[in-house]
Design goal:
Layout: E1 2-5, E2 11-15, H1 19-28, E3 34-42, E4 51-65, E5 72-80, E6 89-94, E7 99-103, H2 108-119, E8 125-130, E9 134-140, E10 145-152, H3 162-180, E11 185-189, H4 194-205, H5 207-214, E12 217-220, H6 227-235, H7 238-242, H8 247-264, E13 269-271, H9 273-281, E14 285-291, H10 298-309, E15 313-317, H11 322-329, E16 333-337
Parallel strand pairs: 8-11, 11-12, 14-15
Antiparallel strand pairs: 1-2, 2-7, 3-4, 3-7, 4-5, 5-6, 8-9, 9-10, 13-16, 14-16
Helix pairs in contact: 1-2, 4-5, 8-11, 9-10
């Protein structure tokens, strides 16, 4: 994310640099915000119905991501545009590297999310989590890992031939082929010998496709394949071998630390809106962990504003990993305390 101009009272100019930025903007942009951008709109008073590039502004009514997660769709009523196009409703499509203007009343929690996004490194991970019989392919960045597809070997029994393995590896390669060019790191991990064998397959039979990626490839071990295997890549530090001190790993350590504290020193942890508010009134909150799934809650926004006034550290935790899901299951709000309160 690049903030070209930030004005909390007037309009700001923002550049989305990755699909991760689009996810952050989805959390930040709300109904009644005003978005201005160059877009395509049908020219009126012509018989050809020609679409032209034009700058216009809409008042946002609806937001959403495309199914692939690579386009942020912002829909609403046009409030400013040249007369050559018809007014009415329009959807502005924001993609990575697009620049747009936004007018809104910024809240503290929104600015926190925006500034976190600015600090993120632009990293495109391709992950192959496989064993001898099944595979999950995923993509990710600093903040989250998204499964793309799963592959299962035909005749996946105890007895199989080298021909079966070759066909299986070809299927896995076909699944990752379209993502190789955009990836700058590859992680191959799983139980047994399959990760090393697949790496050898790429190196010997697909080298012309993966030449540039091989030097940034990590081969490692997970105990299982699937969602739990992807979580192991984060929790066991495999991701950190590629992306030093990644946001995903940082967030996992923060959440696990909070639950560890809850187990060992429960008097220094509290959770739930009313309990956290009481701790803030006592000026006892050292740090606040908030799930990204609850940041749009107006009560949570008020809690964050109060916490900032007593200099609490704010952590907005992504819900797209096991630790983030665990935080959300606890209500999405946990406070670590400076001292015990009664």
């Amino acid at each position: 994310m690049k903030i070209i101009k930030l004005d909390v009272k007037k309009d700001s100019v923002i550049k989305a640099e990755s699909t991760e930025d689009l996810y952050t903007l989805l959390q930040v942009i709300k109904p009644d915000d005003i978005i201005g951008a160059k877009t395509l709109r049908t020219e009126q008073n012509t018989t050809k119905k020609k679409k032209i590039a034009i700058f216009l502004k809409i008042r946002v009514e609806k937001t959403g991501l495309s199914e692939e997660g690579n386009v942020l769709n912002l829909s609403g009523k046009i409030i400013e545009a040249k007369d050559i196009v018809q007014k009415g409703y329009h959807t502005i499509h924001v993609k990575p590297n697009d620049v747009f203007r936004i007018e809104k009343k910024w809240k503290g929690i929104e600015l926190t999310e925006l500034k976190q996004a600015v600090k993120e490194r632009q990293i495109n991970l391709l992950i192959v989590n496989l064993d001898e019989r099944s595979c999950v392919v995923a993509k990710g960045g600093e903040k989250r890992i998204n499964p793309l597809c799963s592959i299962r070997k035909e005749n996946a029994g105890k007895h199989y031939s080298q021909a079966d393995e070759g066909k299986y590896f070809e299927d896995v390669f076909c699944a990752i082929k379209e993502h190789i060019e955009s990836a700058n790191y590859l992680i191959i991990a799983g139980p047994g010998f399959a990760p090393a064998d697949f790496y050898k397959f790429l190196k010997t039979k697909k080298r012309n496709f993966v030449e540039n990626l091989l030097k940034n490839t990590i081969v490692d071990v997970t105990s299982v394949v699937g969602g739990s295997g992807l979580n192991e890549i984060i929790s066991r530090g495999i991701l950190d071998r590629v992306v030093n001190n990644s946001i995903l790993c940082q967030q996992t350590k923060i959440v696990e630390g909070a639950f560890d504290c809850l187990a060992k020193t429960p008097h220094l942890v509290t959770y739930g809106k009313s309990e956290v508010e009481e701790a803030i009134r006592e000026k006892a909150v050292e740090s606040l962990l908030i799930s990204d799934k609850v940041v749009k809650d107006s009560e949570i926004e008020e809690i964050v504003e109060k916490a900032k006034k007593i200099h609490s550290e704010i952590h907005i935790i992504n819900s797209h990993h096991a630790a983030g899901e665990r935080l959300y299951d606890m209500g999405g709000l946990i406070a670590l305390l400076r001292y015990r309160i009664d």
